[in-house]
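dumping this here before i forget
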Amino acid sequence: MPIKDVFKVSRKTFINPSAWIGLPELKDTTKTLWQIVRGLFVVPQAGEPETFEESLARQGLTEEDVKEQAERYFIFAVIFATLAVVSVIFAFYLLFAERTFSGFLLGLAVTILFGSQAFRYHFWVFQIQSRKLGCTFEEWKQSWFKSSPGPGE
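structure:
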């Protein structure tokens, strides 16, 4: 190997701002972010909606399987709701007994996570019990609070 290749010195040896800021990685990250943002605003083209019974047949599930899964989801919902209650109590304990506001905020964040999981599993139980795919939040809320439909519904 020639000696000039061993001691190859160029302007990029000492001055290379694009390498300093990681320009290729920055471009890739920006491209990925734009793809994610564009995907948020694109409405997917829906085909024909699948009924609950068609979905059962497609997945090869029996009524017993569905009943067991609904019971399992309900148990998960109860566990997560219990954890949410415990974590909110602990958050208030951190606020008043330990006088730490950051612990209180973290406790509330954990409570929100547990609550969202409890809602998720209970919503799945609701869909199984109503035997309808694609239920809305309003339908769940009406069944949960046993409210009568409003005017025009």
